[in-house]
Amino acid sequence: HASRLYTERLQLAEAYMKSKGLPQEYQERVRRYYExxxxxxxxxxxxxxxxxxxxxxxxDIVEFNCAALLKDVPLFxxxxxxxxxxxxxxxxxxxxxxxxxxxxxxxxxxKVV
Length: 113
Fold this sequence. Notes:
single chain; mainly alpha; 5 helices
């Protein structure tokens, strides 16, 4: 099922790129993104799955999913568990490729990546 869903998403992206006449460089970046994200991609709606659970269970799962990341960031070493839990609830998984620019100087940051 996951393989079929991946193929469908990639075909939809290919059709979109063709209809918009995207330059070859962007098309290749999109393909690399799909290749890089597929092994770990959430081919399900994580927000929906979590929304069906109780709040305490949601919170515990989100904290578990982010624990290793927050542990590896020195900034969070001196913060308490409540603060880490709040940060964990704001983070969303993303895939970045070599060369991707995550933020530009003087441009507002609208996503935590």
